[in-house]
């Protein structure tokens, strides 16, 4: 039971770090182009020589 004294704060800290990383990714515009890959797959980059 005394192990919970260590595990609960560690899990809260790790969860907070994950949440902070998620908000940082949103703030730095990592998710701004949701349609880019769908359109990019259709572009033909092969130029026959």
Any descriptors?
49 residues, mainly alpha, 0% strand
Explain what you see.
The chain has 49 residues and is mostly helical. It has one domain. It is 59% helix and 0% strand. It has two helices and no strands. The protein has helices at 4-27, 36-40. The chain starts with a helix and ends in a 9-residue tail after the last helix. The model has no long low-confidence stretch (mean pLDDT 87).
Give the arrangement of secondary structure elements:
Blueprint: H1 4-27, H2 36-40
Strand proportion? under 5%
Outline the biggest β-sheet. Answer: none
Give the tally of β-strands. 0
- Number of helical segments? 2
Q: What is shown here, in short?
A:
With 49 residues, this protein is mainly α. The protein has helices spanning 4-27, 36-40.
């Amino acid at each position: 039971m005394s192990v919970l004294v260590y595990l609960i704060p560690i899990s809260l800290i790790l969860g907070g770090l994950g949440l902070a990383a998620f908000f940082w990714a949103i703030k730095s515009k990592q998710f701004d182009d949701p349609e880019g890959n769908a359109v990019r797959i259709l572009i033909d980059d092969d130029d026959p020589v």
